[in-house]
Amino acid sequence: MKKFLFPAFVFLSVSLFGQNDGIHPVSNTYQKPTDPLVLKKLEQWQDQKFGVIIHWGLYAVPGIVESWSICSEDWITRDSTSDYDAYKRWYWGLSKELNPVKFNPEKWADISKKAGMKYLVFTTKHHDGFCMFDTKQTDFKITAGPFASNPQSDVLKHVFDAYRKEGFMIGAYFSKPDWHNENYWWPLYATPNRNNNYDTRRHPWRWEQFQNFTYNQIQEIVTGYGGVDILWLDGGWVRPMNTIDEEVLMWGAPIPQWDQELNIGKIAGMARSHQPGMIVVDRTVQGPYENYQTPEHTIPEKRIDNPWETCMPLCTNWGYVPNDEIKSMERVIRTLVEVVAKGGNLLLGVGPKADGTIPENVEQRLLEIGAWMDTNKEAIYETRSLDYYQEESVFFTENLKKKKIYALVVSNESFLKTKTVSWSVHLPKKGTTMIYLPTGEKVKWKISDEQVFVQLPESIIRSKSGNPVWSFAFEAE
């Protein structure tokens, strides 16, 4: 059979917004968990503030967008001369080529730690169904290909172990849809869209087989890979029919007329019997198993009081794509500051190459981010949002234990010209000392006309490093 070699640019035309593009918006409602162990774990997770999500799978071999190129929806473009069935055979065949001989999870964990990240979400399986762990439910897995003889072939184990040793909270990304599984995309029928391609009401046995397959795979993850803090379930279109409301319909995703119930309650119960207090994130499926919300690629317009995280890739794509556009250090830091001030966490996406290495430009960017985090972390970690979280270019966070307020000032030339910055909320307590966090130096301030005017320290005026956000700590009235 002819081998299909497709350059990255012919696969997909992907916009950054809209459920049609496989992107999850934030759901409108939130149901607070009642399990005290889950609530305790959520508090711990909210202290972390900054995490990494790693997308790694077959799509890294040709360097294309993760999974979506094998889906048939009109927003997806492939080479117009390609045959769909042949294309899928080519894609599945990448399992015989993924051989990450330079895989070094300890280095990944070290880079992530130096970036200031505190928790991990690793893609155990994306929508294409290829498993990055040694599942017993299918041979479509990393441990059945050319990497099988490598001592680190069960990559999930070694990734979790490496990050756990660095003190990270551990999260398992798991795709609810599985386009390789014949009980999800039944070969008897065409695959018109992302959903399963048969009526589950007419073929209940087949759907039950898929339910069991999903349950068994998640059971393997929560019983065979040490402590897991977060089960991060993707593919929000796989959901019970009774959760499809007007909000879901407005997203514009294709919706079948039959149920795609996986019984997440049963799965969560099983998972928590092995991992007490585990956070379950059934993305966009409002109810008891969406323990925190996950707006994708976006920052909510206003503060959200529920636990939530913005998830976005460092580059344009979640997985590795050659010459992908990468976000600047300044953009990531300012995004993190805004997200934290509004009460959320930032989960930043990184895609390793097929050989198992993190691209050099990605590593360099993460280290740049880490340099800022190293001197400003007190204003980020273990903080909470305030009612007045922003005044123009100034964001605020609070550490209740330390009884401190932090002003995070987005730098600009006008402040540098006047050598001052001011705000009118969260005024410093009389006699308190205000500290510029990166250097620990005291800064001068005064209150006039119900505003505080802070004199920028000389270290800011002289700095040529392009510090994107200046952080000050003080006690408030």
The description of the largest β-sheet is: 7 strands, parallel
SS strand fraction:
15-25%
Q: In which range does the helix fraction lie?
A: 25-40%
Mass-distribution shape:
globular
The N- to C-terminal Cα distance equals 74 Å
Order of strands across the widest beta sheet?
5-4-3-2-1-7-6
Structural class by helix and strand composition: alpha/beta
- Low-pLDDT residue spans: 1-19
* Total of helices: 11
Query: Assembly type of the shown chains?
Result: single chain
Mean pLDDT across the residues is 93
What Rg is obtained from the alpha carbons, in whole angstroms? 24 Å
Beta strands, count: 16
Helix-strand sequence: HEHHEHEHEHHEEHEHEEEHEEEEEHE
Tell me what you see in this structure:
This protein is α/β, with parallel strands linked by helices and 477 residues long. Helices cover 26% and strands 17% of the residues. It is built from eleven helices and 16 strands. It has helices at 36-48, 84-93, 105-114, 155-165, 204-224, 246-250, 264-274, 329-341, 360-376, 413-418, 458-462; strands at residues 50-54, 119-125, 169-175, 230-234, 279-282, 309-313, 345-350, 390-391, 394-399, 404-410, 420-423, 434-436, 441-443, 445-448, 451-455, 469-474. The strands form three sheets. The protein has a seven-stranded parallel sheet with strand order 5-4-3-2-1-7-6. Strands 8-9-10-16-12-13 form a six-stranded antiparallel sheet. β6, α8 (329-341) and β7 form a beta-alpha-beta unit. The radius of gyration is 24 Å and the shape is globular. The relative contact order is 0.13.
